[in-house]
């Protein structure tokens, strides 16, 4: 990378700037720079700050950047995986020293006026049983932020990315036609995200949940119980599935009060475009593929559970 970051001090004149540029190897001749700046009456228009410049730039490009005030800000990249919960996002940002964990969680639970005014749909759902208002709304992706970015700015960036995704023409159209609200779609998408491990099954998993919702059958999603327990257990006990919580879909009909994680685009698409089938059950194959067996009846499902258990031996 041939770029160099230089500092133009406040009040620096053309001679001082020419000297800085020459010392950094960005120009070959100080006199030529001073002559160019004065001839074009630019010598009083330089703006103090840090600039990212390259030796391959010509005088006009260098002068143009310093004049524009296009100040360089150091940036950092971070990635939030699909299926992360708010608490996992906060912990990861804190671990990478990009945010204060407590401040981030507070804002996720009590968004600022700026956040709510920018994304008013956050106020459109009943959040009485929701711990983190922003659960499921912080889109999982790779982000670039400046070193000065605070918790609020990171949250605004992640909400903005979700806004971009749900504004894609086909998704925006499907949301308008959907029988469920945006909040409910994100809730279902988050369950699909946590239940599905391979992309080609997401649409089918979403279809199973739609089939259950239509006839009033309990969703019985293990992922919702894991959210309640606060841990990912490979095998749930009967006692686990009876844990009292509005999020427990083994004991409460319909969707939980809100998302249980941040769904990626594939899971949001699955929730909006589920694959139609006559399946009402699915269970992990436990064969290392991340795939599931799908069943039409409880009898079929029990047979598939027995088949999967043989893969555990």
Task: Supply database-style keywords.
46% helix; 313 residues; mainly alpha; two-stranded antiparallel sheet; Dna Ligase, domain 1; elongated; two-stranded antiparallel ribbon
Which percent range fits the helix content? 40-55%
Percentage beta strand: 5-15%
Mean pLDDT: 93
Radius of gyration based on Cα positions? 27 Å
Largest sheet: 2 strands, antiparallel
Cα distance spanning the termini: 53 Å
What's the shape? Answer: elongated
The count of DSSP E runs of length 2 or more, i.e. the number of strands, is 6
| Low-pLDDT segments | none
Q: Report the order of strands and helices.
A: EHHEHEHHHEHHHHHHHEEH
Q: Please, how many domains?
A: 3
Trace the largest sheet across and list its strands: 1-2
Q: Number of DSSP helices? A: 14
User: Helix- and strand-based class?
Assistant: mainly alpha
Kindly describe this structure.
By secondary structure, this protein is mainly alpha-helical. The protein has 3 domains: 4-68, Endolytic murein transglycosylase (Dna Ligase, domain 1, 2-Layer Sandwich); 75-166, no CATH class; 180-310, no CATH class. 46% of the residues lie in helices and 9% in strands. The protein is built from 14 helices and 6 strands. It has a two-stranded antiparallel ribbon. A two-stranded antiparallel ribbon has the order 3-4. Strands 5-6 form a two-stranded antiparallel ribbon. Strand 5 and strand 6 form a beta hairpin. Helix 1 (14-23) packs antiparallel against helix 2 (30-39) and helix 10 (199-215) packs parallel to helix 13. The protein is elongated. The mean pLDDT is 93.
């Amino acid at each position: 990378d041939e770029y160099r970051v230089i500092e133009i001090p406040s009040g620096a004149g053309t001679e001082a700037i020419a000297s800085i540029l020459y010392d950094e190897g960005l120009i070959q001749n100080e006199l030529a720079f001073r002559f160019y700046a004065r001839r074009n009456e630019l010598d009083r228009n330089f703006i103090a700050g840090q600039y990212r410049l390259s030796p391959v730039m010509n005088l006009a490009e260098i002068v143009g950047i310093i004049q524009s005030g296009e100040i360089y800000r150091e940036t950092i990249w971070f990635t939030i995986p699909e299926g992360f919960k708010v608490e996992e996002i906060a912990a990861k940002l804190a671990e990478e020293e990009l945010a204060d964990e407590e401040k981030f969680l507070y804002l996720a639970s009590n968004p600022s006026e700026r956040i709510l005014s920018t994304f008013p749909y956050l106020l459109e759902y009943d959040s009485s049983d929701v711990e983190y208002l922003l659960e499921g709304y912080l889109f999982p992706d790779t982000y670039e932020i400046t070193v000065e970015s605070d918790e609020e700015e990171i949250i605004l960036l992640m909400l903005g990315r979700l806004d971009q995704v749900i504004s894609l023409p086909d998704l925006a159209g499907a949301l308008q036609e959907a029988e469920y609200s945006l909040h409910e779609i994100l809730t279902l998408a988050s369950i699909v995200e946590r239940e599905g491990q391979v992309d080609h099954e997401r649409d089918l998993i979403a279809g199973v949940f739609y089939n259950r919702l239509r006839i009033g059958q309990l969703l019985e999603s293990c992922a919702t119980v894991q959210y309640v327990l606060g841990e990912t257990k490979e095998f749930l006990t009967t006692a686990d599935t009876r844990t009292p919580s509005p999020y427990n879909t083994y004991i409460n009909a319909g969707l939980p009060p809100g998302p249980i994680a941040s769904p990626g685009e594939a899971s949001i698409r699955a929730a909006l475009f589920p694959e139609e089938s006559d399946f009402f059950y699915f269970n992990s194959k436990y064969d290392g593929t991340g795939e599931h067996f799908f069943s039409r009846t409880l009898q079929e499902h029990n047979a598939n559970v027995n088949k999967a258990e043989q893969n555990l031996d």
